[in-house]
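Quick note —
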Amino acid sequence: MPVQIPQVRILVVDDDKAICEYVQTVLEKDGFSVKTLTNPLAAEEEVRHGEFHLILLDLMMPKLDGIEVLKKIRKLDSDVAVVIFTGFPNLDTAVAGMKLDVVDYIKKPFQVEDLREVVARVMKKKGLARTPEEQLHRVIGDTIRNMRKDQKLTLKQMSKRTGLSVSLLSQIERAESSASIQSLYKIACAFNARIQDLFGEL
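Predicted structure written out below.
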């Protein structure tokens, strides 16, 4: 059965229509599902029904500034990742953003590479895999963590059993490192399991 890549839904809120269209074009080309809003007053209703994974939010908008929009979003969804666009970075808005759990900032004007880099970083931080390989690493990591917890083993105990470092084991569980077949074999042996058991329901 092929690995299913989850469709990542992104909302862009910016009063500048050209920026909305530009960001939408770039991110849809990269395989994301993108919705744009030029009216910040509509953001609250959109988030209520949209089930977004990431929101790209302009800081300086007429009618309602980005921080006020973010306060409304957080009342509805405490988990969605929010990245702030700003041409005017300052300490006050940075502090306000941190309190409302902003995960990153993109300074205007920005290059395509800046946008892609921030989005990729946020996707990784939120555990939203973007390729079959990343999805596979995540499934293996989750399976190993669950098996370890089922057997009430600490990372330190696993390290002792496998000869692998605590740091590497932690990275494998968090899908931040690709485990070699040799490492997976050692982990499977530590669980008294078969290596294929680490691949979950794939």
